[in-house]
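Example 9 (inverse folding). The structure is encoded as follows.
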């Protein structure tokens, strides 16, 4: 394994890409410690300690802990993700934008440019909301229009710079720029989570059984990692047969292959998209006039993480975005058309519409399995942090008051040991390793996995 790892640095182009990616991630982590002017850092820490499982805690995860420290990168990549969701939805429902997307590289550049503009606008709006929240919470040294203007300028510039860093990793690094930035932020917070568990063991925070509980949590985390790896590697293989045809004096074709359909084609993107959408009402609920409104205040409270309505919407959004992402990545009509053009077919299925319907039916079933898998992983951090407040359901909440305390109030475990964090870390790590492995194999080196082998070059005489 060490020899295979050293092969990365023996290829000049791959070595430059890996070192460039590490350098960009170092810049990102450096900016994660540059504070925004005018904020009392100690009071802000106390605020996050009091609201660890709220909207602020959710946004702090995807910002890599920068929101907790209120740095220039406090918004993270959430504005860019939201803008990407908007344009991906518009390409489905708005025909002119769909035509632009089909123009190839030129159309993709246009949509990317518009996404950048919308990202800046969303970042400015979120910065205004954060400045208002900080002013209301009393953590601002000199509140007023000057602080709001400085915060908007600082956070918007930081968000645009993060967007540029992610694009640089995608273009000149090893790919998956935005995902790697989220990955770096979560991994940087793992030591804090380990220290939190160690402190609980030292103080017997959960009673005399604290040590055994921590061991159970670690074992559970390992089991979740194994489960994630198993599902991410799972795929449904559709057999494909290519038709035989005569080319000159030779009989060509007739080979058998398969079409791999991953169980979780969307990866972690449905969870990220759902969290991004649900973060909007969470920020909106922090506005003072909304909290004082008798009609909106109960609605905003019901849309707080850990409450049944929030979790229900989260589940529905995950299912929706799982199917939506697959509909963008995998197009059964295009696959069937490519089969017809290449002379391939699925045994027992007629080419054309029947092939498209057959692939669509399989995608529908396995995507549902993938969405259920994402929901199960998403529910792990909810029970570890705050539980689900079934006792707050309107009219019937009293029926759930006798449930175990850990189901309603959670176990107060650090957020970084949640299933969402592990899914992002494991998923991004697997994708990154696969990309590096493909680069190695393309250059006739052994990959990381035992089955990758070495691709033999063409014989020369």
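The amino acid assigned to each position is listed next.
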């Amino acid at each position: 394994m060490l020899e295979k790892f050293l092969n990365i640095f023996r290829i000049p182009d791959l070595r430059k890409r890996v070192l460039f990616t590490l350098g960009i991630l170092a810049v990102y982590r450096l900016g994660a410690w540059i504070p925004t002017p005018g904020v009392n850092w100690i009071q802000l820490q106390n605020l996050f300690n009091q609201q660890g499982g709220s909207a602020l805690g959710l946004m702090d995860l995807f910002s890599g802990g920068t929101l907790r420290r209120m740095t220039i990168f406090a918004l993270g990549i959430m504005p860019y993700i939201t803008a990407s969701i908007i344009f991906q939805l518009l390409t489905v429902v708005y025909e002119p934008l769909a035509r632009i997307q089909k123009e190839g590289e030129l159309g993709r550049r246009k949509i990317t440019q518009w996404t950048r503009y919308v990202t800046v606008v969303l970042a400015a709006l979120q910065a205004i909301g954060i400045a208002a929240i900080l002013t209301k919470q009393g953590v601002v040294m000199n509140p007023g229009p000057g602080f709001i203007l400085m915060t908007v300028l600082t956070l918007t510039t930081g968000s645009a710079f993060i967007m540029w860093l992610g694009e640089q990793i995608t273009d000149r690094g090893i790919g998956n720029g935005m995902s790697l930035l989220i990955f770096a932020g979560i991994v940087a917070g793992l030591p804090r989570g380990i220290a939190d568990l160690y402190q609980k063991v030292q103080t017997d925070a959960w009673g005399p059984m604290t040590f055994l509980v921590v061991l159970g949590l670690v074992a559970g985390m390992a089991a979740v990692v194994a489960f994630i790896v198993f599902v991410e590697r799972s795929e449904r293989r559709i057999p494909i047969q290519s038709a035989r045809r005569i080319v000159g004096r030779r009989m060509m074709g007739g080979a058998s292959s398969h079409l791999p359909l991953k169980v979780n084609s969307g990866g972690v993107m449905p969870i990220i998209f759902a969290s991004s959408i649900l973060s909007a009402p969470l920020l909106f609920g922090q506005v003072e006039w909304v909290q004082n409104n008798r009609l909106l205040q109960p609605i905003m409270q019901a849309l707080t993480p850990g409450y049944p309505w929030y979790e229900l919407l989260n589940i529905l959004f995950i299912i929706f975005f799982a199917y939506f992402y697959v509909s963008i990545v995998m197009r059964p009509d295009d696959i069937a058309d490519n089969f017809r053009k290449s002379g391939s077919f699925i045994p027992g299925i007629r080419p054309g519409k029947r092939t498209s319907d057959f692939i669509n039916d399989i995608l529908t079933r396995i995507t549902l399995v993938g969405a259920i898998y994402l929901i199960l992983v998403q529910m792990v951090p909810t029970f570890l942090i705050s539980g689900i407040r079934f006792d707050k359901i309107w009219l019937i909440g009293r029926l759930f008051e006798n449930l175990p305390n850990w189901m309603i109030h959670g176990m107060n475990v650090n957020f970084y040991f949640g299933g969402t964090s592990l899914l992002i870390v494991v998923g991004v790590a697997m994708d990154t390793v696969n990309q590096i492995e493909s680069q190695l194999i393309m250059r006739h080196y052994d990959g990381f996995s035992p089955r990758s082998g070495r691709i033999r070059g063409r014989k020369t005489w």
